[in-house]
Amino acid sequence: MTAPLTTAEVIAVGSELLGSTRLDTNSLFISDQLRRLGIELKGKSVVGDDRVRLGDVLGDALRRADLVVLTGGLGPTDDDLTREAVGDVLGLELSEDPAITAGIRQRFERRGLPMPEVNRRQAMVHRGARSLPNPHGSAPGILIATGGKLVVLLPGPPRELQPMLAALCAEGGAIAEHAGRERLYTVLLFTTGLSESRVEELVQPIYSTWRDGTEPISTTILATPGQVEIHLTMRSSDDAHAKERLERSRAQLAAALGDCVFATDGRSLPQVVGDVLRERHLTFAAAESCTGGLLLQRMTDVAGSSDYVTGGVIAYSNELKIQLLGVDSSLLDTHGAVSEAAAAAMVDGIRERTGADVCVSITGVAGPGGGSEAKPVGTVVIGVRVPGHPLSVQTHRFPGGREMVRLQSSQMALDRVRRMLG
Ligand code: AMP
Ligand code: MG
Questions:
Q1: Is residue 306 located within the same domain as residue 256?
Q2: Which CATH number belongs to the domain containing residue 131 in this structure?
Q3: What is the pTM assigned to this prediction?
Q4: Among 55, 121, 287, 397, which is disulfide-ready with 350 (CB 3.0 to 4.6 Å)?
Q5: Which of 215, 239, 263 is the last residue of a domain?
């Protein structure tokens, strides 16, 4: 092999992976390991235990990528066909390696069992290929160099595959040896409060100028409820230069997006808000209705959040809003539980009861039922109290189903706190 490996494809083999109960997770691990070596996963396929179809997919992958990693189908049973399919495509015969058979036999003998004859299939290796030891199972892996490319066959069980692939990617390992000097660098930029298309509108004129040239930067925009992420990636053999260039690019995008950017270091919104609270020695409490504790769950998912979270109340019914938060029952009769008056009373109630510096209340219609013409599903009122600011109560209208509405409510509440703490 001469040219370094820069692109890869994964083929996950197993009919069970095409059903509705099992997912290919090996490719996630493989992608991460290869990425560290500057080898980019360009595509992946899931194929059932079908020799002809697997051959087709492997043939295509080999035309496109420098490295193809196949996982699964190395077992001893008739439905494990990866070795045979690879032999078909590469025109390589299989023959039994007696040393491998002896190793498998020993594995069984250590457990006081005779080796079933079918396990001899796992000792079949392609002509000129290298067998890869599997410390956690009976099926060894196989490494084949062919036409300037590498084909790697690994067993399906993650606990067997992971150490084997890690060894190939570690210093001196066969994949690491064939990787180039270039590495992949990525920086992140997280925003909230803007739609995916609005983010695109603001940043596309900038990032589109980075696509060409000798060192292109590729841009990925990812939307989740209440959050739009931008990922910038470039390939380089110069560590300092790559970091400096990406940092400059990220700063350009951040300037265009303004205060909608909440993190440029991968932190989540609860982490960002939590860090500000800790820095300012402020405590936090929440009174939640329609989010059922989601806001406090997200806040307390962050390790160390006991530094600033005091707690809160989930007051779903009107009775508990009255009992635990001191909301006036006549206020609820007049304005309803989803109202700015109720949100204001809830936030003041939680503040009086906890003494926390920063308090939030959330009350809304998460749906699918409970909406009305005046307060349709997705109507959410959020109250925020931050020292040095007047009480802030705002009504929002969130799109989507129940889960989306709840998530966006918690995200909006956090973002309002972030902005007020500014
Ligand atoms: P095999 O090597 O085909 O005998 O696979 C054995 C077991 O490994 C399967 O039953 C799965 O539980 C697991 N497995 C196979 N392929 C994958 C994959 N791509 N991701 C996660 N687990 C897998
Ligand atoms: Mg299988």
A1: no
A2: 3.40.980.10
A3: 0.85
A4: 287
A5: 263
